[in-house]
């Protein structure tokens, strides 16, 4: 995503010591497939006790609203720590 090598972001997130997981989304996909795969993963994480998801979004209001709406349906809170920051 965004042209960042997977090995680089994996090293970055591993260095924080915070558990993480990924969702594999086909490169060319529909919003329905995206929503289904994300919902399945969030359900799995919620069943494991996860109640909040953090995002690195900084300015796209429609994307933030979409994430908040979808995760609210699954009883997961959202966090946007970089929102509106340079």
Q: Round the mean pLDDT to the nearest integer and report it.
A: 91
Give the amount of beta strand, in percent.
Answer: 5-15%
How is the largest sheet built, in terms of strand order?
1-2
* Helix/strand order, N-terminal first: HHEHE
Helical segment count: 3
Helix vs. strand class: mainly alpha
DSSP, total strands = 2
Ends distance: 20 Å
Instruction: Give the proportion of residues in helices.
Output: 40-55%
What best-fitting shape do the alpha-carbon axes yield? globular
Q: Point out poorly predicted stretches.
A: none
Computed CA radius of gyration, to the nearest angstrom: 14 Å
Main beta-sheet strand count, sense and barrel state: 2 strands, parallel
What would you say about this model in short?
The chain is mainly alpha-helical and 86 residues long. The chain has helices at residues 6-16, 31-47, 61-73, and strands at 52-54, 77-79.
Describe this protein's structure:
The protein is mainly alpha-helical and 86 residues long. 48% of the residues lie in helices and 7% in strands. The protein contains 3 helices and 2 strands; from the N terminus they run H-H-E-H-E. It has helices spanning 6-16, 31-47, 61-73; strands at residues 52-54, 77-79. The protein has a two-stranded parallel sheet with strand order 1-2. Helix 3 (61-73) links the parallel strand 1 (52-54) and strand 2. The longest helix has 17 residues, at 31-47.
